[in-house]
Design goal:
Helices cover 30% and strands 14% of the residues. By secondary structure, it is α/β, with parallel strands linked by helices. The structure holds 2-deoxy-6-O-sulfo-2-(sulfoamino)-alpha-D-glucopyranose and calcium ion. Calcium ion binds next to loops.
Length: 538
């Protein structure tokens, strides 16, 4: 990842935090769990990870008073699959939710909320669910259908009604979460509350009160914004380029009579949800920008960079509401004496591209989207503070929560409890590599199917299905992954070792689509082989 990530925070501030063990010891078991997961929030847009772009004081507060994971990753960089990994503690090949477009989550399967219920916890989920089947294992739930809407969104309630609520989604989900903690839960029991935000998902629609923010800010263009994808075939064939694929109307709100775009009708349907006051605030803000844009009619490089700046501004404004609302939850917990015995987790369903490689969206195993932010406020009897550098993955959350609750961790869970790390231990046998597998292809954004292994230093990726391409990166020397080293003879032994390690992981996680050194099995990856199209639909 970019060198400017993990700035001074990792050095000066952490040093002072270690000496600051000023917390009282009011924690008592059982601990509560508040898990806040946003959608598409990437570390580049969170100031405790990256100071270049925006300030996120409330998210930083979690990191400052608690811990920041500096090597946190997902197993399959897409919403539904990430949620399934998180709930089950298993890779996609084991929980069978491979992609957003063809899968329905088998809600009869084991999940950590169900196991927490058995251990005497009250459980609740509010916000984005995105697993097609309805939530199970929760004493209370209220979720948005599909992706949800930013303005005046619909919610599916526990008795299977659909209701519409007035307002902006990030505020409403937070209201619902606080209302459950205050008025609906059984206060005699420990609780686990999952707050799943729609923000900061495409198409980045701002709350009216934040429309004017960041308009004077020029965001720094990533060094590889004009990437030519040399020697990276899969990267060259995606459809998530800011220049080519970001829609002027749908994504960047440049709606004007007589101008058309592929996604214009969808954008108009979002505007149609607004009440007159919301719509007026929206139009008052955007109309002058729209007029100015079509009058100047920028082209080429000027248009590319104009699109980048508008994208960054919209995204930053949506983060502002999110950060404010996380602050509301922290304040509630603090004011009600709950912070001392609650683990508060903040993460996202995956990272996102903020113009790196010229992109928006995620999916690739490259750093920006395989990473996900992860900061935690710990119960006050946990004295660990500062950075946790070990390789962790979203399959680790389920066993962490179970162990924290004192519940047994079933053998079939594939993740590893992070509790030893939260206690400040440095386990010598901590994992040395992570496994990744992305399946949603052919589909929107056209990112090829791929799996791979990431160690502290290297990343090996195999793109398969209608392509058969390997990539190798030395992340230490090439953090922005521009230089594919696969096939260079001086890296042959590293590739051989990484392939062997990857095969071990594929066997450990029982992934049926696996690389094999056996010639016979390699046929599965031949271009055009019908098996490869069905490989995961079992
Ligand atoms: C929508 C978006 C995509 C995005 C997917 C998955 N298109 O389909 O850009 O990649 O969601 O995102 S949109 O036109 O509907 O905005 S995920 O985070 O839910 O996995
Ligand atoms: Ca997402």
């Amino acid at each position: 990842m970019n060198h400017s990530l993990y700035p001074l925070f990792g050095i000066a501030t952490v040093a002072s935090m270690f000496s600051a063990c000023q917390q009282s010891d009011k924690a008592s078991k059982p601990y509560n769990i508040v898990y806040i997961m946003t959608d598409d929030h990437t570390a580049q847009m969170m100031s405790c990870y990256d100071t270049r772009n925006i300030e996120t004081p409330n998210l930083d507060r979690i990191a400052r008073d608690g811990v920041r994971f500096t090597n946190s990753f997902v197993a399959n960089s897409l919403s539904g699959p990430s949620r399934a990994c998180m709930l089950t503690g298993k890779h996609s090949c084991a929980n069978k939710f491979y992609d957003n477009t063809t899968c329905v989550f088998d809600s009869a399967q084991q999940t950590f909320p169900k196991l927490l219920q058995k251990a005497g916890y009250q459980t609740a989920v509010v916000g984005k669910w995105h697993l097609e089947s309805l939530p199970s294992g929760f004493d209370y739930w209220e979720v948005v259908p599909g992706q949800g809407d930013y303005y005046n969104p619909n919610f599916i309630t526990q008795n299977n009604d659909t209701i519409q609520k007035e307002g902006y989604i990030t505020n409403i989900i937070t209201d619902d979460a606080i209302d459950w903690m205050e008025n609906k839960r059984d206060k005699g029991k420990p609780f686990c509350l999952l707050i799943h935000h729609k923000a900061i998902h495409r198409n980045w629609m701002t709350d009216t009160c934040n429309l004017h923010l960041y308009e004077d800010k020029e965001f720094p263009l990533p060094n590889n914004f004009y990437d030519d994808y040399e020697n990276r075939l899969a990267a060259a064939s995606q459809e998530m380029s800011i220049v080519k694929d970001m829609d002027l109307i749908y994504d960047l709100k440049m709606l004007k009579e007589g101008k058309d775009s592929r996604l214009k009708t969808l954008y108009e349907s979002f505007l149609g949800r607004m009440n007159p006051a919301q719509r007026k605030a929206w139009d008052d803000f955007y109309n002058p920008i729209i007029e100015d844009f079509y009058r100047k009619n920028p082209q080429g490089k000027e248009l590319a960079e104009w699109k980048f700046q508008r994208y960054m501004r919209d995204y930053a404004k949506v983060v502002k509401s999110l950060d404010d609302n996380v602050g509301r939850v922290l304040d509630y917990l603090e004011a009600n004496g709950l912070l001392d015995n609650t683990l508060v987790v903040y993460t996202s369903d995956q990272g996102f591209y903020m113009g790196e490689h010229g992109w928006f969206d995620k999916r690739f195993m490259y750093e920006e989207s395989m990473r996900t932010p992860l900061v935690m406020h710990l119960p006050s009897d946990f004295k660990t503070r500062g950075d946790i550098p070990q390789l962790v993955q979203n399959i680790d959350y389920a066993p962490t929560f179970l162990e924290l609750a004192g519940a047994p961790i079933p053998n079939d869970i594939q993740g590893v409890s992070l509790l030893p790390l939260l206690k400040g231990e440095k386990p010598a046998d901590w994992r040395k590599a992570l496994y990744y597998h992305f399946y949603e292809y052919p589909a929107e954004h056209m990112v090829k199917r791929h799996y791979g292994i990431r160690t502290e230093r290297y990343k090996l990726i195999h793109f398969y299905n209608d392509i058969d391409v390997w990539e190798l990166y030395d992340i230490q020397n090439d953090p922005t992954e521009m230089n594919n080293l696969y096939g260079q003879s001086e890296y042959d032994s590293i590739v051989t070792e990484l392939k062997a390690n990857m095969l071990e992981l594929q066997e450990q996680y029982n992934d049926p689509v696996r690389f094999s050194t056996e010639k016979e099995d390699q046929r599965i990856f031949q271009v055009g082989n019908p098996i490869i199209y069905q490989a995961y639909c079992v």
